[in-house]
Amino acid sequence: MPVTDVTQDIDTRTLTITAEFAAPVERVWQVYADPRQLEKVWGPPTHPATFVEHELTPGARCTYYMTAPDGQRYGGWWQITEVDAPHRLTFDDGFADAELNPVDTAPVSHNVYTFEEVDGGTRAVYVSTYESAEALQQVLDMGVVEGSRLAINQIDGLLAA
User: Fold this and answer.
1) What is the full DSSP assignment across 70-85?
2) CATH homologous superfamily for 3-160?
3) Distance (Å, rounded) from C-alpha 129 to C-alpha 78?
4) 55 — alpha (psi -120 to 50), left (phi > 0) or beta?
5) Integer Cα distance of 63 and 120 in angstroms
6) pLDDT band at residue 122 using 50, 70 and 90 as cut-offs
7) Domain boundary assignment for the chain
8) 119: part of which helix (H) or strand (E)?
9) Where in the numbering of this chain does the Activator of Hsp90 ATPase homologue 1/2-like C-terminal domain appear (predicted)?
10) Which residues lie below 8 Å from residue 133, measured CB to CB, with a gap of 6+?
11) pLDDT in tens, 69-117
């Protein structure tokens, strides 16, 4: 399994997930750069994602929804803040309503994804920083660690295809 470490720190309001993939950095980057590939791994296996808007350009907004087995949709958005392909992607991530508009009362995380070459493969470090300890605790209670682990662990299958 790709996920090698998960660290949550309420004091710094961060969730850090480290994963390693047996593929070059450029190939792993393509998973995030191509919305059709990203859809296969963004949500856990039981909640596949559909990206409606996707552009990795600073200032751009990406919108998506995940579909539960019962057909219920859960929306989300990214606001891209920095792109240094293929090594770094920075964005804010939040929840969205049925029309994919941001939900102002839901937690927002600032995310820094980094990809570095390690022994011919890629180490990915995903750091999410929340506005408050309460916001981090809210998403932890919602199962963000297990959901993220399940989603990231799907990437190996996509890379091998």
Assistant:
1) TS-EEEEEEEEEEEET
2) START domain (3.30.530.20)
3) 14
4) beta
5) 33
6) very high
7) 3-160
8) none
9) 22-159
10) 10, 11, 13
11) 999 999 999 999 999 999 999 999 999 999 999 999 999 999 999 999 9
